[in-house]
Amino acid sequence: DPATSDSLFSAALATADRLRLGPEETASLRSDYGYVLNGPERQEEAEALFRRAIADFRAAGPDERHNLGTTLQHWAVALAGLGRHDEAKAAADESMAVVEEVHGRSSAAYASVLGNMARVVSATGDTQAAVRYNREALSTLDALGLGTGDFALTLLNNLAVNCDDPAEQFQLLQRVRVVRAGAPSTMQNLGVAHMDAGSLDSAAVWLQRARAAYLDSPQAETFSASLPLVTLADVRLRQGRASDAERHAAAATRALAERVGPEHWVTLYAGGLLGAAEAERGAVESGQVRLRRAIEAVEAQGVRHTTKVERLRELAEQLDAQS
What was the pLDDT predicted at 161? Predict the structure, then answer.
């Protein structure tokens, strides 16, 4: 339960401060708390916690090298999520070097670094590099006899997201589904895969299941719970069901603006889909304005959202042709 974890870590840090514990004693606590918060909703807080923990681990010397390596990779993911890509890559590179020094390349710890490096480069739009890092991480786990564990399933899921071969993408997601049949993130990714393959009815089914599963979980009020609505809006646009698309996109835009802010790229993307749906429904001028503003705003945030920008441009071109 994210809310319970947040409350417990906050209370633990307050107690540590009250007892005036030293930095070496609180650094691990800050690192673990940052890991709990390291999602789109509270990534700035997570980054600050990681940064302070890293400074304390560095000051502690060789005895904390293993904790330094772990925290650096999580810091890199937070930095990437905040759009600070150069800093993220530098932190990930240092993490890889430290973990290799402490644990060696043939270790679960090194596989973890590779998986997080994949997330960092994926955030810049370099999906090919992300695929390479994920494959290397999976190979490392397989060699250790850990290829069927929970972390391996996460890597398979991430590999499927970045893979550009539809057949392999479905194969990977089906492997994950066997174990995580009820996981809403797996259903969401299957919905995206079906949409990309043109199987729109199947995509809608998976996305509706994902949305229902999120609402029936502790993640009901999180950023992730809105993602099926965003993709479902796109599916309905592709099906010519503008009214349904408008409803889903409007709900997603409102929820995302509350959770991650109006300028987050996913909020902007959902707003672009909303504009396209409004235009299809007859509010052509205002819908096109909303869509073009979304394109400009997402473009301004860098290359990591190239495919989303391409989709919004495609919708804008379709509206231009119709008008």
Answer: 87
> In the chain, what is the straight-line distance between the N-terminal and C-terminal CA atoms, in Å?
49
Of 213, 107, 108, 104, nearest in space to 151 by CA:
108
The C-alpha atoms of residue 167 and residue 175 are separated, in whole angstroms, by: 13
Q: Round to whole Å and give the CA distance between 46 and 57.
A: 16
Phi, psi of 20, deg, nearest 5? 55, 45
- What are 137's two structure tokens? 């991480």
Query: Distance between CA atoms of 227 and 98, rounded to whole angstroms?
Result: 35
Residue 149: left (phi > 0), alpha (psi -120 to 50), or beta? beta
Q: Give the Cα separation of 217 and 213 in Å (integer).
A: 6
Q: Which residue has the tokens 């810091």?
A: 75
Question: Judging by beta carbons within 10 Å of its beta carbon (0-12, 13-18, 19+), is residue 226 exposed, middle or buried?
Answer: buried
Residue carrying the six token digits 């349904």: 244
Tell me if 200 sits within 8 A of 237, measured CB to CB.
no
- Torsion of the alpha carbons at 57, 58, 63 and 67, rounded to the nearest 10: 40
Name the pLDDT band for 316 (thresholds 50, 70, 90): very high
Round to whole Å and give the CA distance between 304 and 125.
4
d(CA 169, CA 186): 12
| pTM of model > 0.85 | no
- CA–CA separation, 118 and 137 (whole Å): 9
Three-state DSSP class for residue 82: coil
DSSP state of 83: T
- Contacting residues for 259 by C-beta, under 8 A, at least 6 apart: 40, 41, 221, 222, 223, 226
Q: How is residue 75 written in tokens?
A: 């810091």
pLDDT (tens digit per residue) in 245-302? 999 999 999 999 999 999 999 999 999 999 999 999 999 999 999 999 999 998 888 6
